[in-house]
Amino acid sequence: MSLLVNTVFLILVGQLNMLQALLPITSNDMATEETPSFLCKLKFLQILDLSDNQLSGPIPRCLGNFSNSLSVLKLRGNNFHGTIPFEFPKGNSLRTFDLNGNKLTGQLPKSLVNCLKLEVLDFGNNQIEDTFPHWLGSLPELQVLVLRANKFHGSIGRPEIDASFAKFSIIDLSFNNFTSKLPAEYFSSWKAMAIGNKNKSEAKYVGDGYYQDSVTVMNKGLEMKLVRIFTVFKAIDFSHNRFEGEIPEILGNLGSLIVLNLSSNSLTGSIPPSFGKLTSLESLDLSGNKLAGRIPPELRSLTFLAVLNLSNNLLEGLIPQGLQFDTFTNNSYEGNLGLCGFPLSKRCEDDVVVDHSPPMETEDSGSEFDWTAMSIGFGCGLAIGVVTGIIILWNELEYLVRTIRIKYLISRKQSIN
Ligand SMILES: *[C@@H]1O[C@H](CO)[C@@H](O)[C@H](O)[C@H]1NC(C)=O
Ligand SMILES: *[C@@H]1O[C@H](CO)[C@@H](O)[C@H](O)[C@H]1NC(C)=O
Ligand SMILES: *[C@@H]1O[C@H](CO)[C@@H](O)[C@H](O)[C@H]1NC(C)=O
Ligand SMILES: *[C@@H]1O[C@H](CO)[C@@H](O)[C@H](O)[C@H]1NC(C)=O
Ligand SMILES: *[C@@H]1O[C@H](CO)[C@@H](O)[C@H](O)[C@H]1NC(C)=O
Ligand SMILES: *[C@@H]1O[C@H](CO)[C@@H](O)[C@H](O)[C@H]1NC(C)=O
């Protein structure tokens, strides 16, 4: 008789927030891998991470019934199905709740509104059918909301309270069925995306001091796993929905955004010139909409923009020339019949007459130049900081993962012997 060894990793973290035990649990249930029932009896658990196992069936109700000390609950990457059973009591300590990559259905649990310490909420890649959870706007610490690839629908609407989602760093609503206009009123309440962390030594990671959170985002056309979420990383991904109407001018106020992806919607009107103020932007994707008119020359000043995608729209006229626009190739513009000029092979008629550079200031442009130089200097440091931060921490996690795997192999050997 073969003994199937199922392994669940349990990270138990004690009062001092230190890793105290790493327990592989074995069971010989051949058919399904069920959540071990003794988990329900652990009363002082602070962190429960059952990510990337083969657990299936409904989520055991009792998992939501830990003492109020539970701060991290991660069931990511399993095969859980059914609805989300949790009832979160008032005064709980939950900071990270991650159910990404299961087969969960139904609606979001309304008792999440009691999780006043919540920082990271990830329901991505499930089959949840609900409307935009505007009622989470009152959670004062919420920084990351991922609803990617579910069946959310309807309009986002407008905030019901002031400073709704004021601490948002990352919002990913991509691959849902959201409709109606982009939520201009919300954009003006997402203060953290507007101000950012100007003081670099104050920049922190989400979960500092209790846990390393991670989240996966699309950036520059690549799926990127942020092992620890650096709070200066700000991203909005609304791609693959059915948003319509014009892009609100006020989106240009979110000056610390690094990623903006509005691709594959039905947006109309023109690209707002206010996007020239998104000076931290590194990745801008507006492809697959119905945007018309000219590309605003203000975008030339986005000195960190590494990826620009305006493909498959109705844009026309001369592509802005010079500065950052020298770095984009013609696949940033494909599928816009009316665009002309470098890097497209189509030349503009009356090329020379059409000059879209911003109106010249009077001769004393000296101060303006200085300002640009300063902002480039600052921005460079920041961009490098973000990138090295991610790489270094990525390596740290690799180490952690290896350690767990080694222990797993040892314990497996022992149980086979
Ligand atoms: C949750 O815990 C309370 C008290 O600790 C208990 O009375 C209740 O039955 C538990 N509920 C579930 C679903 O385990
Ligand atoms: C989106 O909603 C429309 C109707 O409201 C429906 O026909 C369509 O199947 C939905 N798409 C998805 C991906 O859920
Ligand atoms: C930046 O933050 C650090 C730590 O809070 C503080 O010591 C320092 O004075 C701040 N610097 C500026 C320029 O505000
Ligand atoms: C924007 O989102 C779509 C869909 O998620 C993705 O395929 C694309 O690569 C993203 N664009 C960028 C520049 O990351
Ligand atoms: C822009 O998006 C289109 C799909 O809409 C894709 O084919 C193209 O390669 C993308 N270009 C860049 C520069 O990412
Ligand atoms: C895009 O650039 C490539 C190589 O630079 C060129 O062969 C191609 O004709 C260009 N396409 C258009 C539409 O300008």
TrEMBL record:
Domain of life: Eukaryota
Lineage: Eukaryota, Viridiplantae, Streptophyta, Embryophyta, Tracheophyta
PANTHER family: OS01G0160600 PROTEIN (PTHR27004:SF428), RECEPTOR-LIKE PROTEIN 12 ISOFORM X1 (PTHR27004)
Record field: transmembrane: 371-394
Pfam families: LRR_1, LRR_8
Record protein name field: Receptor-like protein 12
Main location: membrane
Residues making up the signal peptide according to the UniProt record: 1-21
